[in-house]
Amino acid sequence: MWLEYEKNATEWGWMKTNRGLEPLVTTADPAPESLLKTISCRCKKNCGKMCGCRKAGLKCSILCQKCSGETCENTVKIRELLDDDDDFDCREHNIDNPAESKHNIDTPEDENLEISEDETEDVNLAGPSSKRKKTT
After folding, report:
1. Are the beta carbons of 92 and 85 closer than 8 angstroms?
2. CA atoms of 11 and 81, how far apart (whole Å)
3. What's this model's pTM, rounded to 2 decimal places?
């Protein structure tokens, strides 16, 4: 009984044993499977065929001692990361090749940037004249 309500303890995370009620031990994995499979390599360059991560079917990560998952052939490509993100569309942002793009897609402070009409009245336009022009 709990707060004057009849509750069945076995439905609330407890099990009956010879010694009485004991809490259930979790049946879930101790960590996500991707973390349990984390392997890091010590490749000296390029992370080619001998790469421990590649042999395990994984991409290099920040845990790798030499490449840190950034300077090798076995790293997650930007395209693969973007494919996982349902909210971001390269076509919408006119990004054909993210590596050559001038856009930095990892800057969350730019996401909420809005310019009001008052701020667009006086704009310094690039060109041969250094004179400020008004836009309409």
Report:
1. no
2. 41
3. 0.33
Three-state DSSP class for residue 16:
strand
Rounded distance between C-alpha atoms, residue 1 and residue 17, angstroms: 19
- 50 vs 115: which has the higher pLDDT: 50
Alpha carbons 63 and 69: distance in angstroms, whole number: 8
Q: Coil, strand or helix: which one is 33?
A: helix
Q: What is the pLDDT of residues 12-25, one digit of tens each?
A: 888 899 999 999 88
Residue 72 has pLDDT above 70, yes or no: yes
* Residues 72 and 50: beta-carbon distance below 8 Å: no
Residue 60 near residue 71, CB atoms below 8 Å: no
The helix (H) or strand (E) run that includes residue 23 is strand 20-23
